[in-house]
Amino acid sequence: MPHERCPLLVPQRSAEGRRPAVLPAVSRLKDAIAANRDISEFDVHPDERIAFLTLVHLHLYQSYFTGSQELTSVWTSAKDIASLSNDTENRLLNLWSEYLDTNPSLQEVQSILWSEFPSQPESAQCLRVVDSFFAEHVPPAFLAQPSKRAMHFLHLLGHLFFVGTLAHYLLYPPSFIMSFSYRWYGARETLILMVVASSLLAPWTIYSLSYILAFLGFLLTLPSAPLPGSLAFTLLHAALIAHVVSLHLPYPPSIVYLLYPSAFVPLSTLLVQGTLRILLPVTLLLLPALLLTSYLVSASLGDPTLQLSSLNPAPMESRTSFSLLFLLVIGLFLFAIATSFAAADMSFVTSGEPWDRYTPAVGQLARKRFYCTIIRHTGHVFFPPFNLLRMPLIVIDFVRSVFGYPQAPIVKKLEIVMWRASVGLIGAVVASIWLWGSI
Questions:
Q1: Which residue of 52, 266, 372, 380 pairs with 419 in a disulfide if CB–CB is 3.0 to 4.6 A?
Q2: Angle between helices 106-114 and 360-376 (to 10 degrees)
Q3: Nearest CA to 384 among 153, 109, 194?
Q4: How far is C-alpha 275 from the chain's CA centre?
Q5: What is the dihedral of CA 226, 228, 229, 230, to 10 degrees?
Q6: What is the 3-state secondary structure (H, E, C) of 3-45?
Q7: DSSP per-residue letters across 104-141
Q8: CA pair distance 13, 115, nearest whole angstrom
Q9: Is the whole-model pTM more than 0.85?
């Protein structure tokens, strides 16, 4: 079943022997580069080659700054260190560029980043690629490629477009007369349904709840559109509220990854953990008292509703829904402040590590969420609504499998061409703008 979790488990080592050690391979590679010799292949299983070579190059890069006595001697200049580190960074980028051209699956990329290799042949210490992301010296182009940020930004734009279109529909729904005319669905309603359909066909995430609610809202009123005063219209409000809240959670795509992930991802992770472990149990404990007091207050203040204006206002459901959303945001803001002050680790002042400002446990979980976001937007990913472009290829593949034919290689090649002509092209434009703005 599709899910949004980032699997952290990696395949177990075989009983035939341990995986190759990283640091001896780093020394071999460093000696070969210094002597200008050809670099021989390492004795590693083909399925583990990319993960092992990535670790070797990352630690080789770090050794130029911290781990090598020769390079810190008076005979080695800073220019030499910069040249060697840039060469290692280019080797690493070329390695991953060739690997991504093979169109690996999401699970394969995750397995590479979380695979463990011993640091020394007989050492119990294991090294992983993800553990190197927040080291003191990391190849900047490898960690923060504009393409991944651009793909995440495009994915996020699709969600913001859905929120804006749905909010416009709830503020200005079709009139009762128009809903029974020949023009039941306009461009606005068609766009909402297209985004909902494409998202439900994609692997399900935390946003699937809002898409299901929106789908049910339109399904219950076919062939007309949802109107104020109906259950379907209320479901659309619930979908909007759920989507707005989800955009602030540490699950991609999210606005917390846009500008300063090290500042906002730990805070969002802390709020989620605080909600599940503090706010939710307290609410369940006090729920009977809350229901009783709410009924007593409502019964005691039951006055007729005032007529504020004779103008044509937004529907009552819309005003109520947006008022609840405003109160929810204010409540989350106050809860965020209280929880942040209660859980903040004052060692951040001396350590200077922004990811651990809300205790190391929260920082570790926030890092995992950040890694999952990087992984999800690596490779040829069709996010909604671009995943609809793949539907003809999926149908062709399904028909061939029904008749017993294997998957045709041309289908995979066509999928890559489609990605490069749609998502890849737009992502390249956004990444170019990102690079131009950083100059």
A1: 380
A2: 140
A3: 194
A4: 20
A5: 10
A6: CCCCCCCCCCCCCCCCCCCHHHHHHHHHHHHHCCCCCCCCCCC
A7: --HHHHHHHHH--EESSTT-S-EE-SGGGTTSSS--HH
A8: 10
A9: no
135-180 pLDDT tens trace: 667 676 665 555 667 778 888 888 999 999 999 999 888 876 554 5
Q: Which residues of 237-275 are buried (b: 16+ CB within 10 A; e: fewer)?
A: bbbbbbbbebbbbbbbbbebbeeebbebbbbbbbbbbbe
Distance between CA atoms of 158 and 377, rounded to whole angstroms?
A: 14
CB 317 within 8 A of CB 228: yes
Encoded tokens for 103: 């169109």
Q: How large is the C-alpha radius of gyration of the chain?
A: 27
Spatial CA neighbour of 61 closest among 91, 31, 34: 91
Q: Which two tokens stand for residue 373?
A: 């976001």
Residue 117 phi, psi (nearest 5):
-135, 140
Q: Which are the contacts of 238, defined by CB distance < 8 A and separation ≥ 6?
A: 210, 213
- CA-closest candidate to residue 265, choices 146, 382, 358, 332: 358
